[in-house]
Specification:
alpha+beta; Protein Transport Mog1p, Chain A; eight-stranded antiparallel sheet; four-stranded antiparallel sheet
């Protein structure tokens, strides 16, 4: 019963509480420190007087030489971005995990839950939190059970919340062949009047070695899921627990 209530609450939050995403920005370039000025009490000695008929030391200029060209600065990647990949790393400070995502999207840690939301709708005119997007979550074993149990709870919650708006109901969780990942998924679609179309939701749940369950959920228009498919693939393959 506890898991059913949690699953229902999570689905309601996912569908109807869309938090605005804050865009990450790379830090400004670092300027080289200016040379320190010489102390005021250490004045340079005045030129000594030269013997009569000889030029003073100041007048005896050294031969003019072409100054050496300044050394080119060594390029460095901004903090948070992996060199030569175009990917950012986002860490959930509250839940203790990290994922990577394409730098053309926006990722933020949602306050309260610690979930990471990757927003692919970066148009200035977009409604904050609007689809398409992917949410990455982490649950302990007591809360989620295992990946299959979690997905079954989510499928039941979707039927209860969406009701007659369901177009394609989620079936039984299916195993996904992704190397060493112990991961399963469900897929369902529903009519959404706010976007005037049919929304597709793909939910993946992975059993981690420590007993926790990592969850990756995507929402997109049914006929335009290629963007979230790419985000999901990178998030699943880059997911790591951090201290």
């Amino acid at each position: 019963m506890k898991k059913s209530i949690i699953a229902l609450a999570l689905l309601i939050v996912m569908l109807f509480t869309l938090a605005a995403c804050g865009q990450q920005s790379a830090p400004a370039a670092t300027e080289a420190p200016a040379e320190a000025a010489a102390p005021a009490d250490e004045a340079a000695p005045a030129d000594e007087a030269a013997p009569a008929g000889e030029a003073s030391p100041a007048e005896q200029a050294a031969p003019t030489e072409e100054p050496a060209p300044p050394a080119e600065p060594t390029p460095t990647a901004p903090v948070g971005i992996e060199p030569d990949t175009g990917e950012y790393t986002k860490v959930s400070e509250a839940k203790g995990f990290s994922i990577r995502f394409d730098s053309k999207y926006v990722a933020s840690e949602l306050p309260g839950s610690g979930n990471i939301k990757i927003d692919a709708n970066t148009e200035l005119t977009a409604i904050p939190g609007s689809i398409p997007y992917v949410t990455v979550m982490l649950f302990d074993q007591e809360t989620a059970g295992d990946a299959v149990s979690y997905l079954k709870e989510q499928a039941d919650a979707a039927k209860e919340v969406l009701g007659k708006n369901i177009v394609t109901a989620a079936g039984e969780p299916k195993k996904v062949e992704m190397g060493s990942h112990d991961i399963y998924y469900i897929y369902y679609t529903y009519k959404d009047s706010e976007v005037n179309g049919i929304v597709a939701s793909a939910v993946y749940a992975e059993n981690l070695e420590n007993g926790a369950v990592a969850v990756f959920n995507s929402l997109a228009l049914q006929d335009d899921t290629s963007v979230v498919d790419g985000i999901l693939n990178l998030a699943v393959n880059s997911f790591e627990l951090v201290d």
